[in-house]
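Hi R.,

Here's the chain you asked about this morning:
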Amino acid sequence: MKTNWIPRVYALGLAAALAGCGGGEAPPAPAEPAAPAEPAAPAEPAAPAEPAAAGGEQPMSPQLQAVLPNIPAEFKDKVNPKSGDAAAIEKGKQTYMTVCASCHGEAGKGDGPAAVALTPKPASFHAKPHLTPGQRFWVLKNGIAGTGMSAFGAAMSDDDVWSVLAFADTFQQGGAPAGGVTGESH
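And here is the predicted structure, written out as tokens:
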């Protein structure tokens, strides 16, 4: 719908002119110019987030802190039934490379090509996990609001999720670069 703006501008101008007619009152005196403010001290630049060293602590994002109370208690003590299963790890690797590597990186360091656009940054699987295997399973199925961690519950079976997590665990165990499985260095 095209709007004719000329009558509106005219009406606003007329209203402003009429509002200025104060019945003979003198207009207020102009305020004295404010003294120039002293320039603010430059803020200390925030230290860039450093990737956690292998086995080190990775800071927990506020979003992850917020989701922890929402993870049902029965997931806390679940163990990964695919942990250490070479066939499941290989299957998990294939799914990881297709679905997860764009954010978490091929080497699991949280530095995939899509990571540059995400805040908070994706988790590094080389850092000590903050969650139990069962809690990580729940997060992969349900996602984390306010982050790039999408819910994959509809796209992955429970078996697929456990397999991906078994593969991701290999990064903690000494690394599993894109070309290898457990035990290889990168």
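One quick note: Confidence is low (pLDDT under 50) at residues 1-28, 40-55, 177-186.

Cheers,
M.
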